[in-house]
Amino acid sequence: MSNEQTVLMDGAGIKRALTRIAHEILEKNKGVEDIVLIGIRSGGAFLSDGIAEQISNIEGGTVPVGAVDITLYRDDCSGSLPHHPVGKTEIPFSLEAKKVILVDDVLYTGRTIRAAMDAMMDFGRPKSIQLAVLIDRGHRELPIRADFVGRNVPTSQKENVQVVFDSANKPIEVLLEK
Amino acid sequence: MAEFKHKHIIALRDLSKEDMELLLSTAESMREINSRDIKKVPTLRGKTIINLFYESSTRTRTSFEIAGKRLSADTVNIAPSNSSATKGETLADTALNLLAMKPDIIVMRHAVSGSHYFLANKINCSIINAGDGAHEHPSQGLLDMLTMKDRFGRLDGLKVAIVGDITHSRVARSNIQGLTKMGSKIYVAGPPTMLPPGVEKLGDVTVCSSMNEALEDADVVMMLRIQQERQGKTLMPNTREYSRYFGLNPNNIKLAKPNAMIMHPGPINRGVEMSSYVIDGDQSWILKQVENGVAVRMAMLYHVCGGELE
Asked: Distance between CA B238 and CA B233 in Å, rounded?
C-alpha cells in the first residue's frame, strides 16, 4: 500500500458531525432518559466522550459513558494469529433496561460491532442497542447497519480509513489511504 | 505494541521485561471480567486445557481451572492420586497419551525441577509451569508482581524482603528472576541451612545475615512457607526456634516502612512463619494475591494460545 492520503474530514467537520449525531440520538430517543454511551476501544471510546459532551450541552445533565475492549470477543482470536494486547473494559454501571448507544470510529465489515454486541449482552439485558459511527465505509460481512452516521464514504477494500486523534484523544482528521 | 511470542511459560527467567509487562497489563484488563455478574468471555472457546498436578495444590489448581473456565476453555483436572503415575507410567508416556487427546494447553506441577523443559521438547501443545520442584513458579511470581503494582503503581526501585526457606522455594526464585528484571531490589534472609549458595547471582539479590537486616525499610515483606514435606529434619531444630528467629510478628514488622505490604504465597503455617496478628492485619495483602491469581492465569492462558512454537 502506498502512502497516498486524502483528508476526508477535518477537525471542524468531525465536530459538526458529532454534534448532528448527538441531536439525532436525542431526537430518536426523545431525550436522555435511560441512554448510555459505550465507546469501542480505542477510537470509539474517544468519540463517545465527544458525543456525551455535545448531548449535555444540548439537553443538560450527564450521560453515563463506558468503554468496551472487544479483543476477547473477536472471531479471529483462536488459531495461531499473534495475539492482540487486551485493553480495559470499563462499564461501571448496569446496562439492564438501558438504551445502549455503541460508538465506533469506522464501520467496515461489522465484525467488531458483532463482538461488541456480544459483550453488551454479558453485562445484562439492555432495552435496545443502537449504533453510532463517524464513518461508514461499506463492505459489510454481517447483517449490521448504523443508526447514526457521520459520513458515508464509498471505499475499495484496498483502501484504509483512519481517524487520527491528538495526544489529548481529540479527533483531528479522517484520512483515506490508498 | 508488544506481541507475546512464547508458546510455553516455564520460567520467568525465559521472559523479557516487555513480556512480563504485557502479561501484567492483560491481567489488569482481565480483572474486570471477574467482577461481572456473568464471569465469562468466549475467547478460548473450543480450547482444551489439562491441569496435570503431580503435587497437591488447592490455590494454584483451582485458580488455573477458574481462569480457563472464565475464558470459555474446557478444563480437565488430573490429580496425582488418580493418575497413571501411581501405576508406574513415566511422565513422557503420560504426556504423549494426553497429547493423543489433543489438548491445547497442559498446565503442570511436578516435583522435579526442569521437568517442563523435558516435556516441551517432546510435545506440540503449550505448557505452563504451575511449579516444578525448587525451580520456578511463574504464575505466582507474576501475581505477586501484579499485587505489588496495585499497591505502589510501579515495581522499579522497590525494596523487597524475602524471608524463609529460600533453598526449597520456587516462589522465591520466580520472584527474584521477575522482580530483578523489573528493577526491584531483593533482600533475602533465612537460616543458613535454607539459603542456597550463589543465590545472589540470580539477580539483584542481597543476602542478609539476619531477618532484621532484610526487613529494614522494606516496601514489601514476602514470607515463605516452611516446606516441611520437602526438607529433612536436619535444617532446623524445631518450628518454635524457627519462629523466634525468622517469624514475622507485630514487633519486627515495625522495622519495615510504615504500611509496608505483607505477602505470603500460601498455604500458611499459622504461628510459624507469621503470627496471626500479622496475617489478618491491615498490612496483609495475602487474599489480594489470591484474587489477582485468577486474572494473571487468564492472561497467561490467553497469551500462550497466540504464541508460536519455538
From this structure: 9
Whether the CB of A78 is below 8 Å from some CB of chain B: the reply is yes
Residues of B in contact with A82 (CB under 8 A): 3-5, 306, 308
- Tens digit of each residue's pLDDT, chain B (310 residues): 568 889 999 999 999 999 999 999 999 999 999 999 899 999 999 999 999 999 988 899 999 999 999 999 999 998 877 667 778 888 899 899 999 999 999 999 999 999 999 999 988 899 999 999 999 999 999 999 999 999 999 999 999 999 999 999 999 999 999 999 999 999 999 999 899 999 999 999 999 999 999 999 999 999 999 887 776 667 788 888 999 999 999 999 999 999 999 999 999 999 999 999 999 999 999 999 999 999 999 999 999 987 654 4
Domain extent at residue A26:
5-70+88-177
Q: Is A122 on the interface with B (CB under 8 A)?
A: yes
B277 and B168, same structural domain? yes
CB A134 within 8 A of CB A174: yes
Which ipTM value was assigned to this complex?
Answer: 0.84
Question: How many domains does chain A fold into?
Answer: 1
Q: How far apart are CA B280 and CA B286, in angstroms?
A: 9
Question: Range of B146's domain?
Answer: 138-289
Phi-psi category of B157—alpha, beta or left, where left has phi over 0 and alpha has psi -120 to 50?
A: left
Which candidate in A71, A72, A88 is best for mutational testing of the B interface (most B CBs within 10 A)? A72
Residue B262 carries which side chain, given as an amino acid letter? I
CB-based contact B180:B62 (threshold 8 Å) = no
B47, closest residue in chain A (CA to CA): A78
